[in-house]
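User: My advisor, Dr. K., asked me to get a structural model of this assembly before our group meeting. I'm new to this, so sorry if the format is off. These are the inputs:
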Amino acid sequence: MQDVAIVSTAQFNTRAAPDRNEIEILLPVAQEAVRRSGLARGDIDFTCSGSSDWLQGQPFAFVSALDAVGAWPPVKESHVEMDGAWAMYEAWVKIQTGEVDSALVYSFGKTSPGDLAQVQSIALDPYCVAPLWPDMDSINALQARLYLQASGRDERDLAAIVARCRSDALNNQHAVEKGEHDVDKLLTEPYVASPLRAHDCPTHSDGATALVLVAGDRARELCARPVWIRGIDHRVEPMHLGLRDLTRCVSAQQAGLNAGVDQRRPQFAELSAPYSFQELILRDALGLGDDVRINPSGGSLVTHTMFSCGQNRIIDAVERITTGNADLGIAHASQGPCLQQNLVCVLEGD
Amino acid sequence: MADEVEPVATIGTPIRLEYDYRPGTAESVFLNGLRQGKLIGARAGHDGPVYLPPRGADPKSARITDDYVEVKDTGTVVTFSITRVPSPNIRIDPPYAAISVLLDGADISFFHVLRGCELEDVRIGMRVKARWVPPEQRGPTVWNIEYFEPLDEPDVPYDEIKEYC
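Assistant: The format is fine. Below is the predicted structure of the whole assembly, which you can bring to the meeting.
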């Protein structure tokens, strides 16, 4: 197995970026990640991205995004209609094949132009579910109800998670929603889809993320403290919600085991839990005890750029390690309704 | 039992999504220019190629195209095709000439239509000029140019434009 490290990162998130198109949002972020890597753009072997044309409402929008990262002379490139965390997985596999030694991985999402709830609806079974136009908040609320019933937890536990995430976000310059909050006061807010209130749901944002992967000793030459991908895996569950036990997350559990989470003692975990209660399901799935700090960045409850948020969790974890605040952490990405698909990686600094 | 099930041949699940399209900084400059009867391209720094329409980035250098340059509404046909198929979205009756025109001052060609000459006279290298709709009818759209029409100027030799063809 080839050792692969993340040698540079960059991110940008804002509540809405009405004056910039996707290329204009992405360009400075990608440029920053390349600059920090110490590699010339032309020396990066592979380019891989994650985004969704459905958000933009433009077919092949991901191709025009290549303008922002420099694609002439033509580059070796790939794209996943998924979160950028999966683009990183593809780049990692590509490096394992020996075909390339470095990769620029980026993702972006701008949800402000369309009605996100409607766009997400058409990702569901197109014949029997999507025609009902269910929105994600409602679907995830079904899972929340089941989870609270099965676990014995209550809405106060969820509000406590929200308060902690928003408070942690005060130390995250990239976070969109932040502040000190009183749990009792949060519990007086109206429901969006019971048992979920607005603060239990993700804070949607527009933004972009980028990172550079480099294999082997070259990473050490380029970077004072490369962050190594010690293990990475992803798993998906069936599309039909009725086929799944929504009170647990088997795909995250399996991905975690395959990434080697149980073999290590992570100090923290950046979990892609767009809805407050999902953090608890993921903690159980990954076997993370009380000694593991969860989402020091504030997580998806405070900043949630679609198709970029999973890669953002990886970048937040990397930055925590490169700044010397930790040595070993977990980064997790999820997509699909009710934590359908999950990616887990173990990250460690030298 | 399965044999007795009447197969459903088709089902209708209409999907309609509406988007609030925001063109971004560079394209807004271009579209606002069109409103004023101007063609505004952009380049990265003073030495980069001039892109029209600009989309915010120079795909060759991955730099921001923040230097805006007005391009002339005259240019040279770099390729063309005589279109004989009608389209509900195009308000010109076929046959007509679809052209790729290299505007004077731009480094990439621009797509439009050509009228005002016999179709058999359309050729690579011919000089053309935009015909604009009256100012009071202009909005932020490329249809502010009704069409291009021939200019009474000598053709540009192929060798001088071949890198754009």
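One thing worth pointing out at the meeting: The mean pLDDT of chain B is 93.

User: Perfect, thanks a lot.
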